[in-house]
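Review this fold:
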Amino acid sequence: MMLPILAFVFGTALVGGAALLLLPRRAAAIDRRLEELTAARQDVEPARPRFQTLVSVFKRVGEKVPRSPKEMGSLRLRLVQAGFRREEALTIFFGIRVMFAITFFLVLSNPILLKRPNTMLALGGLALGYLLPGMVLARMAKRRAHKIRLSLADALDLLVVSVEAGLGLDQALTRVGSELAFAHPDLSDELRLINLELRAGKPRAEALRNLADRTGVDDLSSLVTMLIQTDKFGTSVAASLRVYSDTLRTKRRQRAEEAAAKTGVKMVFPLVLCIFPSIWIVTIGPAAIKFVTVLFPMVQQMKR
């Protein structure tokens, strides 16, 4: 009985001693981690001045571009909806658009890159370079609005719990914004801006309307309208939020059912363009080859 026990103790001591010998020291591990962080920071830091230089070039070009007051309002709103709230964001966007247009025109009109440069092709590239940043910006705003729309259900649940627990609406919005900072950062930033506007002295109705304008989400606009009417008429905020939360979940289920119903129609185009040609080649190809190999000699013999 003692031999197995002694063998087990000896094996355990041997493995533990080997692990202690192979285990790096704490100071060495800390030094290695510091070296990794320092190397990563050295790799990142040179890229930032280049990025800042590029942004400054775009800003310098954008300052010299003539602007339309009617266009500036819509573009500034689109930039805010895409998440760009800096004062110089509009100037940088104008610079990007002009630089893209000039680059496309120079590339398509350069005889070194193209053997036969075409003026119409270069003008088309100029128009494409001018319109492409706006299309990308619209896509970014739409993607951000979709993220906020998906995170609204979780925010409403937390808001209902916070209001029913006894918090006021302003404190509940602040609490929900801090809780959603990791899972839904876009909506958390918008709720944080509401808190800053309320601290600055803006009325709650105006801060909520600004939230709806900044996001461009229909569900959030409906929520803002409901909160303003609830505050105006003095009804229960918790009951109104709970009813709206149930309505929002019903709308989400209906959107999911609508998307599922559209799947069959959307699958027609890849089936027709990608799958059906290969099926025809596999099924009809051998028969067509056999038909050609048999028919053409017969036709040639008949001509002779």
Residues 40-45 have pLDDT under 50 and may be disordered. Residues 145-259 form a domain with the Receptor-associated Protein fold (CATH 1.20.81).
